[in-house]
Amino acid sequence: MAKKTKSIIPDILKLDEIADFYFNTFLELDINRFKWKNLPDTIDPRYMELFLCRNGATVFFHDSVLDRYDCFMCTWTGLDDYYNPTDFYVVLPTGRNIPLDNEDAVIIWNNFTRTSDIPPINMYAATIADIYASALVNIRAQKHPVAVVSSSEAEKLTMLNAYKEYDGNHPVLFVKGKESITDKFTCIDTKAPFVAQELLDAKDRVMEEFLKWLGVKVPLSNNRERLIVNEQVDANAVTYQLRNRGLHSRQIAAEQINKKFGLNIEVEFNEELNAQISEAVDSMGLVKDRGNDES
Predict the structure, then answer these.
(1) pTM
(2) Which residues pair with 269 in a beta bridge?
(3) Phi, psi dihedrals of residue 61, rounded to the nearest 5°
(4) What is the C-alpha to C-alpha distance for residues 180 and 273, in angstroms, rounded to an integer?
(5) Which of 168, 148, 167, 151 is nearest to 159 (CA)?
(6) Which of 74, 154, 173 is nearest to 114 (CA)?
């Protein structure tokens, strides 16, 4: 069996690393969407939102042993006629097990479908990473627009070393011999068209779709004609509806908690996220209004 040789030309990119970057960024945005007010000091809102996102549910209860309110991820068993769980089971990192039921606990759902946000976050991150990677490949194709055919392994290694230097922006020098170097290699022009900007625009469209899915308002004027007022209003209406998919389930849980435990907990969408989102998306390449602004 022929020995498989490893290319000495560095990889153009690592797709998994790009996808991980977008996944972690999107997860951060997801768990910062909602702002809880008047939570007991013993409850960590970051933990609540992280496990609502990951597991689709957490359970709020009063711990009679420690005499405090807690909210942890849980499993559940038993269903009533409306398929609502009646018994919950909490296992803490310390190893402590806490059995609960709907008489002394309130479950908080991530949304009305009672599902995790991880699959859609992963889908958007993978899609954007794939488009971004394609753009990088296309950009690199402008630097290496030819394929080289050699007649021997030695000549192949010579060209690989040459491309290694060229890829690192070093000059490529050959010693002139009896035989012309042009006689040793055949070059095929791949004629790769430059479409990287179109790919990056497509990436921005997918990112805008994800932000809208989160309930974040994003101006939709990127590389397009400026929207008229009614179009922007319609876009915002869709955003608000998508925002409510997570907000309403939390508000219902807050009402149930307040009624059961005599508290005054509130939850609302984190409007600061709309102001902060520009900095986050700029760091990932989404730039608004690339065209000239109207006077």
Answers:
(1) 0.77
(2) 34
(3) -160, 165
(4) 63
(5) 148
(6) 74
Query: What are the tokens at 180?
Result: 């012309």
Q: Encode the chain (295 residues) as per-residue pLDDT tens digits.
A: 444 445 434 455 588 889 999 999 999 999 999 999 999 999 999 999 999 999 999 999 999 999 999 999 999 988 999 999 999 999 998 999 999 999 999 999 999 999 999 999 999 999 999 999 999 888 877 766 566 666 666 666 666 666 665 554 444 444 445 555 555 556 656 677 889 999 999 998 998 899 989 998 775 554 445 555 555 555 667 777 888 889 999 999 999 999 999 999 999 999 888 777 766 555 555 544 444 444 3
- Report the relative pairing of strands 75-79 and 68-72 from DSSP bridges: unpaired
Structure tokens at 252: 């219902």
Q: Which of 94, 88, 83, 85 is nearest to 73 (CA)?
A: 88
Per-residue H/E/C for the chain:
CCCCCCCCCCCCCCHHHHHHHHHHHHHHHHCCCEEEECCCCCCCHHHHHHHHHHHCEEEEEEECCCCEEEEECCEEEEECCCCCEEEEEEECCCCCEEEEECCCEEEEECCCCCCCCHHHHHHHHHHHHHHHHHHHHHHHHHHCCEEEEECCHHHHHHHHHHHHHHHCCCCCCCCCCCCCHHHCEEEEECCCCCCHHHHHHHHHHHHHHHHHHHCCCCCCCCCCCCCCHHHHHHHHHHHHHHHHHHHHHHHHHHHHHHHHHCCCCEEEECCHHHHHHHHHHHCCCCCCCCCCCCC
Q: Could you tell me if 147 and 190 are in contact, meaning their C-beta atoms sit under 8 angstroms apart?
A: yes
Contacts of 269 (CB under 8 A, 6+ apart): 33, 34, 35, 215, 243, 247
Q: How far apart are CA 128 and CA 132, in angstroms?
A: 6
Show the tokens assigned to 182.
């042009």
Tokens 């996220």 belong to: 273
